Amino acid sequence: MCRIQCIKVKSLVSGEIDCNDLKALLLANKHNPAIINLNIGTTMKGGIDDIDVVIKTLEESGFSRDRFYIHCDAALFGIMLPFLKSGPKITFKKLIGSITISGHKFLGCPIPCGVLITRLNYMNALSRDIGYIASRDVTITGSRSGHAPIFLWYNLQKKGLMGIKNEVENCIRNARYLKDKLGDGGIGAMLNEFSNTVVFEKPHDDEFVSRWSLACNGNIAHVVVMQHVTIQMLDSFVEEFIKSRSMWFKDGTINKALCIAHEVGALNCTCSFHKAKDIPTPALQLVKQNV
Ligand SMILES: Cc1ncc(COP(=O)(O)O)c(C=O)c1O
User: Fold this and answer.
1) Tens digits of residue pLDDT in 165-221
2) Residue among 38, 40, 42, 43 whose CB has most ligand 1 atoms within 8 A, to mutate
3) Does one domain contain both 25 and 42?
4) Distance between CA 76 and CA 34 in Å, rounded?
5) Percent of the chain with pLDDT over 70
6) 108, 228 Cβ separation under 8 angstroms
7) Which SUPFAM superfamilies does the entry mention (predicted)?
8) Which residues are catalytic?
9) What is the predicted pLDDT for the residue at 252?
């Protein structure tokens, strides 16, 4: 919409932004200020960008604080992260300009909506008087849903802090259970330390993918473990995956697990090459760094 030049930055195995690549791109584009879109939970892997490292990279590349703007896209995980003890802190004490959270994801609003939190000076710079509603507004069209905030408010009131905390902990626990169960079944899988998104090798069979409604990207697929997911569901998913997999692999045309080391790290890959290396796999191999 703004017709600003957009540059993609590489990511690490975890899905986090690769700050070495970011630095190279910043140095190559020193003449322009930078608007950086960070992810607090990437879509495919749930990777959380390290705000401190990004700011350090900007400073080291000669970008003073008046020459960069950081937006934090926390669509799914922004509302979950504050409830995880020892999780990274996303705060306006750091040099970020804004953060967004979707209302229709974890909070379950029945209509698409979201919350943008920004600094007052940016809000004042952008908002204008909409005469006929006797209010100030920052939206492009000057219109917005009145229902969405009510649904959000209702949801927050109904669950309360403890309610949300319990839901978050349950999702994380179940995601870890799924990651372990896939690993025990010999299926390459990965789970970031602070995430409910389990990444694993893409199933060979399109029918299986579509029946379980799996989102795939290249050689990987993911399951986002939300509040409605039960242990029974996860058990039947993995059992069916393992059973189908043994049939796919029996077929002469497909005889080996996909190598997904590039996507999930060698430790989490169960292809014949990486498995043969006999790397001891801990019960829960949590990905934090590029491995
Ligand atoms: C990282 C990220 N940003 C943004 C979105 C989209 O958010 P919304 O549906 O609120 O536009 C998604 C997911 O759908 C996402 O994973």
Assistant:
1) 999 999 999 999 999 999 999 999 999 999 999 999 999 899 999 999 999 999 999
2) 43
3) yes
4) 25
5) 92
6) no
7) PLP-dependent transferases (SSF53383)
8) 195
9) 60
Can you tell me the distance from the alpha carbon of 178 to that of 161, in angstroms, rounded to the nearest whole number? 26
What's the gap in Å between 203 CA and the centre of ligand 1? 24
| Least confident interval from 1-5, 27-31, 228-232 | 1-5
260: which residues sit within 8 A by CB, 6+ positions away?
A: 188, 200, 201, 219, 220, 268, 269, 271
Rounded Cα gap, residues 101 and 72, in angstroms: 9
Last residue of a domain, one of 129, 153, 177: 153
Ligand 1 close to Cβ of residue 258 (< 6 A): no
Q: What's the gap in Å between 41 CA and the centre of ligand 1?
A: 10
pLDDT tens readout for residues 216-270: 999 999 999 999 999 999 999 999 999 988 888 776 655 577 889 999 999 899 8
Burial label for 138, CB within 10 Å (0-12, 13-18, 19+), is middle
Distance 75 CA to ligand 1 centre (A): 5
* Ligand 1 nearest atom to the CA of residue 43, by list position: 16
Residue 75 Cβ < 6 Å to ligand 1: yes
Ligand 1 contacts CB of residue 43 (under 6 A): yes
Structural domain ending residue among the three candidates 136, 153, 170: 153
Name the residue range of residue 78's domain: 19-153
Total number of domains constituting the chain: 2
